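Researcher: Please predict.
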Amino acid sequence: MRIGVTCHPTLGGSGTVATDLGVHLARRGHQVHFISYDLPYRLTTEYDENIFFHGVGVTTYPLFKFPPYSLALAARMAEVAERQDLDVFHVHYAIPHATCAILAKLVTENTSIKVITTLHGTDITYVGNDPSFFRITKFSIERSDAVTAVSRWLTRRTREEFQTECQIHTIYNFVDPDLFKRRTCDKSRFSRTGEKIVMHVSNFRPVKRVRDVVAVFDHINRQVPSRLVLVGDGPELSTANLMIDEAGLADRVEYLGTQDRVEDILPCADLVLLPSEYESFGLAALEAMACEVPVVASNSGGLTELIEDQVTGFLVDVGDVQTMARRGIDVLRDAEAARRIGAQARARAVQRFNPELIVGEYERLYSSII
């Protein structure tokens, strides 16, 4: 098959999944054409005979207050579809990508091309639910030839928010167990001998509840000598910094900022905190699980489909800082429990969320609509 993939090329879960999916499809012999304004950050520049990148340029013109990227993207998608005789547009995020794919399909002479839209979360719960985007998001979902969502929770949420009878296939995200795995890690980069490493990886948006991360760590550090390692960047980082300073924890926190190779950092953690308001899936949790790192997360959203409480991690009610801290302290103090939870977490990641299984689900979906 010849597959056109459009995603946000910047750091984030949807771009990660879209890129990794494209790479695995190429390994299976499919031709994959990435179409975006920049090379996806997880896509290497090494030559692969089945992977192509088509950049999108935007014309600046005095009459345009804002560069018309969506129109430029749709035009480029139509061009690539015709020149490469694509079978499928697989777009990640409803708007603008699904909207652009539908427009490109109308423009192109390749009338047989199909549009598959994968919903990742904020395109439904935040952007798509904005009144100014609601109708175009609903239109884009219902005019796609197939729609997938990354969890059953997001599938239900989409149907409820948009009152749509459109069939939505739940296809989970996946993790490469050969890339994310337990390995020897030089913990001295982050902590002194005997200190535990508590880690949080996110885009630091309000939904991640970074204040809870700091509050939970404060409780943990009072009982177990530890360090907090923050990976990522975003609007709530400044708020977290203030809380850290007020709590007198500045010398207990390491800031790593945005990192491309999280797989080299996660194995250093003894515990990962993910106290989000909700996660549509929880890719950071899955990656930690694959590295055999216990996760304490919120009992909400797609996380409940990923983590089995007290078996492959811990699920705690949103905002219950005390219980989150208690779960973290218990597992940090009990090396055998940490090892058991970590091993069970990796087993679940490998068995249920592996590339062979998930990429195969996408392949079957492509074939069913072509």
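Model: DSSP finds 13 helices and 13 strands in the chain.
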